[in-house]
Amino acid sequence: MLLQLQHLTLGYADREIIHDLSVSFKAGEKVAILGVSGAGKSTLLNHIHGQLASVSALCAQSQGLVESLSLYHNIYMGALARHNALYNIANLITPFTSRLAEVSALCDALELDMPPSQLVSRLSGGQRQRVAIGRALYQQKPLFLGDEPVSALDPAMADRVLELIIARHETVIMVLHNRAQALAHFDRILGIADGRLTLDSPANKLSLAELDEFYAQASPDQVDVSGYVAGDLPSNVRGDGA
Amino acid sequence: MTNRLRFIGRWQRLTLSLWALCLLAFILADTEIIALEPWNELGRMLSGVLTPDFFATEQLIDALWQTVSFALLGVGLGLIIGVPLSLVYHHPIVAALCAFIRAIHEIFWALLFLQLFGLSPVTGILALALPYGTTFARVFHDILCQAPKVTYASLPYGSDAVSRWLYGKVAHVLPQLLAYVRYRFECALRSSAVLGFVGMPTLGFHLESAFKQGHYSEGAALLILFIALIGTLPYWCKKALLPLYFIAALWFLPPVANIDSQLIWRFVSEDIWPQAIRDWQLGELGLAAALGQSASWAFELLQTQALEGIGATLVLAFAALGLTHLLVCLLLPLGYTALIGRIGAGAQRFGLLLARSVPEYILAFVFMLLFGPSMLPAILALGVHNAGLIAFLSGKNIKDSGLETEGCRGLDGFGYQVLPRIYPGMMALLFYRFEVILRETAILGMLGVATLGFYIDSNFSEIRFSGALLLMGVTAMLNVAVDAIARRVMGEQLRQPQRC
């Protein structure tokens, strides 16, 4: 058992965001968390990160990229804990060749084909997202926590990047909006509505139609439209049609 | 009508109240124009400008180099003082101490250190480094506080504190920090030149003597060189060359005369104390009587010099602030290339360079010839100089915003897109500059405008150090108070000092 949450309630002084939520995660699971905006997904994910900080790499929605640093340095930041302060300072002044090679290989895998010296302030939205993912991957942790990390990528690239993330981590817990991606790449799907766990099912027991149903119930007038068009479905969706 | 009034938002209200206050100050100020038949003198000045004499003094190059060298070493030492202080600036005592130190103008620090170290480079460098270092402390702290905090969440668990701080915080704002140091170096060049007015071997020394003696060709040459020095700053002040400059500045430093520890001790133990305390030290007076007499001495000094000085300083500063705001509003659109065209904007940039490079002292001197001795020349000098600076910095903001290239053309683009975007930043700059204007009234005190600076200067020249120090304290308190009020106006009062 990786983490067991029981009767979890989270919120700020005036507002509860997560109500009495119980869920557990096992090592090796690939979990997608779905839900409409404001349902409490990010709050839950941040709580999980707080509990498992030492074994997890968080790829937050805010990305935390440093505009005035290069692509290389932004990804290298994932390795800060592996080196001492002097090494990190020296690397800030001029990159170490061996680290540069590692980061360049990671950039290739993420299809970031600009020079690693490029400042991130010059990158597009999708490129920035992949840099943020690169930093989390470079942490080389067993658990990947992602908060909509591929929302700005085109569907085909999003699929490739998700595969890369899943291949490099024992356990993945990821907040997603795209139902098709959740079904295609993850083996367990959680649905959060209004701060409560309303869906917890193996992915292969769910269909797109059932997920649509879940979204419609979660908030009838707030159906998420960013998901997909039926024709876009990747071929490897394991939905059983229903 | 009421519906229309609703459109008068926060910035409009602020602007209108600012104008009202400044108008009041302008009415209170002594702005009588006393025609002195200035045309003769002005004519000679103009012909001096047209026939600059670059070979009048053999010390020209030396003065130029000394100006650069003092500025460089002053900023360098200022950074050594300011960077560590910025890390503990959230502590109220540190903040108060820094506010006090930077509230006192370089000139006063120089006057003070002159008594201690004489005409030694130590005087000039310390006079720059103290106020600059404490300013760095505050500004660096503010900039670091603005750095986004989101990066910390994406750093790996167990990163050491130094790496987290450098990569997660400093890296975010490094360009701003460097830009600020660069900007302060330009300020330091001006300050360094101004230190010449109290006897340091920088440009100001030669400028003042040239202008006072009516050697306008020589003065013009010095001024042109100085403006060229500041105008070409981006070309000669390269990061790679800085270490070289530093070594040269240290190497070619004028010999530091032996520091006379006896003199310093006498200054600290005797000179700076009121007469009554010295009498008590000598045993000629009881302690109670000495304290009583000192209190009444201080009270009288505050009543006669400090109050009048504060009044004149505030009136001058507010009138100058209003003029600055008006001039900036006029000058800004003139620098907008999309509105005015390339040539017009280029002319504006050159005008701004002139306005912000010529020391206020020289501007006031010229205006005084024109309008006679009143507060008007001082108001004009401060207004023109600061408007030049604020319009220059706001113009840079316009450029950085990228609006100009986004096709916001004409007066519509300027009024609807550019001005709303930069106005808050411009006002923040203006209020910050008010602190500077207040400090700069000091220099104009040396020209005879009866500000606090005037009284401090006369106390120093009459060797009444106790009075000078008391008035310096009053000046510092006034600046700290005004700064606090300005921050309140900008709505910063709710922010608790935070650790960054």
Automatic annotation (TrEMBL), chain B:
This is ABC transporter permease. The keyword Ribonucleoprotein does not apply. Keywords: Cell membrane, Membrane, Transmembrane, Transmembrane helix, Transport. Gene3D superfamilies: MetI-like. It is found in: Cell membrane. The keyword Iron-sulfur does not apply. The lineage of its organism: Bacteria, Pseudomonadati, Pseudomonadota, Gammaproteobacteria, Alteromonadales. It is a multi-pass membrane protein. Its main location: membrane. The chain crosses the membrane at residues 63-87, 107-130, 188-207, 219-237, 244-265, 314-341, 361-384, 436-456, 468-486. It comes from Shewanella jiangmenensis. PANTHER family: ABC TRANSPORT SYSTEM PERMEASE PROTEIN P69, PHOSPHONATES TRANSPORT SYSTEM PERMEASE PROTEIN.
